[in-house]
Amino acid sequence: MSARARVEDAVLLWNNGRLEGAFLNALIAVAATARRRYPDRKDRDAFVGFLTDAMSVRLSVEYRGECQPVEYIFYKWLRCELVHEGAIPVDIEFMQEDGLSVRAGGSPEYVLKLSLGWFHHLIGAVAHAPENAIEFAARKEHPS
Fold first, then answer.
1. Which 3 state secondary structure label does DSSP give 66?
2. Can you tell me the distance from the alpha carbon of 105 to that of 127, in angstroms, rounded to the nearest whole number?
3. How far apart are CA 40 and CA 68, in angstroms?
4. Per-residue pLDDT of the chain (144 residues; tens, 9 = 90+)
5. Could you tell me the residue ranges of all domains in the chain?
């Protein structure tokens, strides 16, 4: 299992404007790292737990009528949808912002908007995870 290879693939896709593929590879790297950190947890619990560890604040947002932790949204509505359906839901969009922001759009769109800064957060969490230290030791700089 190579989280570093997934991060490198994600950055390559990102740099070529392939955002969904970049996010998918970043989310796979998160899942692999989460499995290393929490080998006895179920996939969702490990994934959400790893992302929760990577955040200094708890952030929840309304999506499809329910207030959900952002970590769960990344698991259920990005990772699972990309893996099982091949695309993100039509009511999730990326915003051209670098920071970590989320907008829960109301009427008439009802679209959840995620800043592109989340991509950098995901790969940064993987690259700096102690579980991946050996893989990322050869390259000291941040992979993105």
1. strand
2. 32
3. 24
4. 589 999 999 999 999 999 999 999 999 999 999 999 999 999 999 999 999 999 988 999 989 888 999 999 999 999 999 999 999 999 999 998 888 999 887 766 789 999 999 999 999 999 999 999 998 886 555 555
5. 3-90+119-137
